[in-house]
Amino acid sequence: MHVAKLAKLDITDAEVKKYSEQLSSVVDYFSELLEVDTKDTEPTSQTTGLKDVFRHDQIDPKNCLTQGAAVSGSEKIHNGYFKVKAILAERTDK
After folding, report:
1. Of 3-7, 42-46, 52-56, 66-70, which has the strongest mean pLDDT?
2. What contacts 24+ positions apart, CB below 8 Å, involve 34-39?
3. Distance between CA atoms of 21 and 53, rounded to whole angstroms?
4. Which end of the chain is more exposed for a tag (fewer CB within 10 A), N or C?
């Protein structure tokens, strides 16, 4: 229940019991993994062999809003952009 409160989850006592049992079995499984002999296994952080895979950005005008349509729901607009309160107390680009 303590973790649920920290996460601000509103769960019942029955749910706490259910999730506690499930979490316990997950932790038990990790304990089993600690018993696996990995002494001769090389560490790896990448398994696919792919390097620097990028896709080109393609704009589909049918799925894009115009600037006017994007700002049309706001009354606070300046030069075609949303006008919002400043979030920085002091500017550094002066």
Report:
1. 66-70
2. none
3. 41
4. C
